[in-house]
Amino acid sequence: MPRPVYIVDGARTPFIKARGKPGPFTPVDLAVQCGRPLLLRQPFPVKAIDLVILGCVNVIADEMNPARVAGLRLGLSDETPAFTVQINCGSGMQSLDTAFRYIERGTADIVMAGGAEALSHSPLVLQRGAVDWFAELNRARSPGERLKVFSKLKLNHLKPYVGLERGLTDPITELNMGQTAEILAHLFGISRREADAYAAESHNRLDHATREGWLKGEMLPMVARDGQVFDHDDGVRPGSTVKSLSKLKPAFERPYGKVTPGNASQITDGASWLILASEEAVSQHGLTPLARIVDSDWGGLDPSIMGLGPVTSVAPILRRQEMAVADVDLWELNEAFATQVLSCVAALDQPDIADGVLGLDGRGGRIERDKLNVDGGAIACGHPVGTSGNRITLHLANTLKRLGKKRGIATQCIGGGLGGAMLLEAA
Ligand SMILES: CC(=O)CC(=O)SCCNC(=O)CCNC(=O)[C@H](O)C(C)(C)COP(=O)(O)OP(=O)(O)OC[C@H]1O[C@@H](n2cnc3c(N)ncnc32)[C@H](O)[C@@H]1OP(=O)(O)O
């Protein structure tokens, strides 16, 4: 019999904008800054943690298997296994899904599952020509040979191959993520105005939630080595309006594209952890569950419309649980792009897709805006890719509790043509 699995606590860091150079924290720094205060407020000893799983897309060379490095830096036992998972933007959700399955089948009782990403530390890799040139230089034995190799150095060898740009480009279609969001805007007829209105609302909702103190306990401050304190998401722009956003130029398809820096998710650094526990661990340590993970799934689709990943991953859950879109009280649908979120909403509401393609048998429908990303999302706070799936699930669990709602779905699109979804029920 599958065992019930509970989310008992969680926290995230503030998300910090990547400003064209490495920020103050590596992925492991972020995971440690977030994990330390989270562990300190737990009633159980760290040795009760059976497993650490961390999602991270851009692993840096000094921190191979960041889950293990973070686990040890957090003071966990040498004997606590730790592994890192990578499924692009789904990595932070994959860590949860894996933890869910470990606990469900009885191989673990308490798992720390997180996501950590420092997009500002994305690698600048040398061009192939430059790598060959360095290899030749290393092989040169005499000053004369070295001089000969030096004479072959070309200026374009110094041009780096930018890991972040490539990481946000689909390797099969060669479309970058922004272009896939443009395709969706075209397919679903999403206007620039609709995208900007959605984006402005995201900023204003997150600003409101922060000022109301709804992120207290969820977002924990961090301190850099130089003493600088980070205690808020620095990308949020309160007072955003359609008018202010309408001034921005398209970022990916000029001049007529709909996706701009204002209605796309921001490139940021940040980490998030959830603590998942079995029923036995809950009663043994006197834990208070926030929510129960009821179900989860993944879906695949054409990479050029990867933004519809939520639709393909939510559908099998709705079918299995015999639920309709309207039965879900709260949705956290990761805001990769405004046009992408709005396309997912439109797709689930279109009978030819909901019934014809997804087999929802009349259970499709419109996700109402007052149930969707109620406290804003990645357009406002940013999208540290390997972290976001974790953050939205954490926020969903906290919001179900705060609003006294029953069921919620956290879902996201994943580059490469995938989607991930988790169904939570208030505990
Ligand atoms: C990968 C997966 O597996 C699946 C997925 O999730 S796909 C999504 C993955 N993520 C992405 O693709 C990232 C998408 N975003 C981007 O690529 C970049 O944000 C972008 C190219 C769209 C813009 O990059 P940028 O120019 O560096 O943006 P940014 O610095 O935020 O903004 C530039 C300027 O626009 C203006 N601006 C941005 N947002 C604004 C707003 N809300 N209101 C007013 N002005 C704004 C400002 O003038 C800003 O400059 P300052 O910050 O100095 O004020």
Automatic annotation (TrEMBL):
<dbReference type="InterPro" id="IPR002155">
    <property type="entry name" value="Thiolase"/>
</dbReference>
<feature type="domain" description="Thiolase C-terminal">
    <location>
        <begin position="287"/>
        <end position="425"/>
    </location>
</feature>
<dbReference type="InterPro" id="IPR020616">
    <property type="entry name" value="Thiolase_N"/>
</dbReference>
<protein>
    <submittedName>
        <fullName>Acetyl-CoA C-acetyltransferase</fullName>
    </submittedName>
</protein>
<feature type="active site" description="Proton acceptor">
    <location>
        <position position="383"/>
    </location>
</feature>
<comment type="similarity">
    <text>Belongs to the thiolase-like superfamily. Thiolase family.</text>
</comment>
<feature type="active site" description="Proton acceptor">
    <location>
        <position position="413"/>
    </location>
</feature>
<dbReference type="InterPro" id="IPR016039">
    <property type="entry name" value="Thiolase-like"/>
</dbReference>
<dbReference type="InterPro" id="IPR020617">
    <property type="entry name" value="Thiolase_C"/>
</dbReference>
<feature type="domain" description="Thiolase N-terminal">
    <location>
        <begin position="5"/>
        <end position="280"/>
    </location>
</feature>
<dbReference type="Pfam" id="PF02803">
    <property type="entry name" value="Thiolase_C"/>
</dbReference>
<feature type="active site" description="Acyl-thioester intermediate">
    <location>
        <position position="89"/>
    </location>
</feature>
<keyword id="KW-0808">Transferase</keyword>
<dbReference type="InterPro" id="IPR020613">
    <property type="entry name" value="Thiolase_CS"/>
</dbReference>
<keyword id="KW-0012">Acyltransferase</keyword>
<dbReference type="Pfam" id="PF00108">
    <property type="entry name" value="Thiolase_N"/>
</dbReference>
<dbReference type="GO" id="GO:0003988">
    <property type="term" value="F:acetyl-CoA C-acyltransferase activity"/>
</dbReference>
